[in-house]
Fold this sequence. Notes:
Blueprint: E1 2-7, E2 13-16, H1 18-28, E3 33-38, E4 44-50, H2 54-67, H3 81-90, E5 93-99, E6 102-103, E7 109-115, E8 121-129
Antiparallel strand pairs: 1-8, 2-7, 3-5, 3-8, 4-7, 5-6
Amino acid sequence: MEKISVTTGKRIQLIDITDKIRDIVHKNGWKDGAVLLFIPHTTAGITINEGADPDVRRDIEETLAQLIPYRGNYRHAEGNSDAHIKTTLTGNSSFVILENGNLKLGTWQSIFFCEYDGPRNRNLWIQHLEE
């Protein structure tokens, strides 16, 4: 298993981590199978979406903020209930297929670390699953 650290700078932020994942795959010589990407936090998630146009990332961040506002009629005492709900929507894990040492992503797809309670220092665990 590998681990990477992600430092976020805003409360809600999608950070493209595709190149970091590619680097780990190549460094370890992983060829085929899949990688499991797991976020061990309850207020951060992971998603795969368009990475070519930065407006898509901005639209996701802004729409989630509008749909699930920071301040609401929440009961959770820590003040970050919105972050827990947003994480539930994106999830905290994802699989990406590996073929011949390459991530099998669509033409426009990128892997995003989703921060919902930042800024923070976070972790992402990567596990190679062999064919």
